[in-house]
Design goal:
- With 135 residues, this protein is of the alpha+beta class.
- Helix content is 64%, strand content 13%.
- The chain has a two-stranded antiparallel ribbon with strand order 1-2.
């Protein structure tokens, strides 16, 4: 026996499970908002939105949460506005890199550009170091 109460064990397991579920719900809701913003709020005319709604329903997201996410994405409700940005670059060896991200504001857009430049520079540096070691 561990010496702890059964309720304590249940409480910790439930907390961990709820945290995972909350993270999943947030990701699914964000996908619904972006799909509604890019293709419209009608799932019949927007297959991306219909797919995102179906995935949310498969994972037991409540219907009112889905409806609010669609309205927020379409601009009918106030809330956090996410923008879809695309970063392009070239990795070592001339390989094209295309990264799509959802950001909240202009500062995060600029931070994403800096992060991409730093990442590509670091990868190039590591590639040069690994080729120098082989010589």
């Amino acid at each position: 026996m561990s010496g702890h109460s059964k309720w304590s064990t249940i409480k910790h397991q439930k907390g961990a499970k709820d945290a995972k579920r909350g993270k999943l719900f947030a990701r699914l809701i964000r996908a619904i908002e972006i799909a509604a913003r890019t293709g419209g709020a009608n799932p019949d005319g927007n297959p991306t939105l219909a797919d995102a709604i179906q995935k949310a329903k498969d994972n037991s997201v409540p219907n009112d949460t889905i409806d609010r996410a669609v309205k927020r994405g379409a601009g009918e409700l106030e809330g956090q506005q996410l923008d879809l940005v695309t970063y392009e670059g070239y990795a070592p060896g001339g390989v094209a890199v295309l990264v799509e991200a959802a950001v909240r504001n202009q500062i995060l857009k600029l931070r994403g550009i800096d992060s991409m430049a730093e990442f590509l520079a670091r990868q190039s540096q590591e590639l040069q170091n690994s080729s120098d070691d082989e010589l």
